[in-house]
Fold:
Amino acid sequence: MNTRIDWPELFFSSSGRVGRLPFLLAAVSLIVMLALYQSALGDNVFTGVFAYPLLFFSGACVLSKRLHDRGRSGWWTAVILFAFIMIWPHPEGLLDFLGLAVIAWAIVELGLMSSEQGANRFGPNPMRASI
Structure:
C-alpha cells in the first residue's frame, strides 16, 4: 500500500483519484481552516477576497478527486459545494434541508464507501502498491 500523500497535488489538482483517508483528512482540514478564518476575521472583505476562493478551489479539487475514485464525474463537486454554501454555518430555512440531504449523500458516498476496485477512467486505484 502506498501511504505517501502528495498534499499540494491533493489540494491544487482536480485530476486523478484519492482514497478515503486522505480525502477525510483534507476535508476536515479545509472545514477547520474555514471555521478558524471566520471566527478570527469574520467577514473581512480584504482577506476574504483571497481566503474564500482559495478554500473553494481546494475543496473543489479534493472533492473531485474523491468523486473520481468512486467512479463519478467531478462535476458533482458543484452540487456538493453549492449545498455546503447553502447550509454553512447552519441550516436556517426549509430549503436548506435539501442541502442537508445532498451533504448526507456526499458523506455516505465519499466518506463511508470504499474506492472503486482497480483502475477506472480517471486512473489507477490510489491504494494499490506501486510495482
Remarks:
- The chain has five helices and no strands.
- The mean pLDDT is 90.
- The radius of gyration is 15 Å.
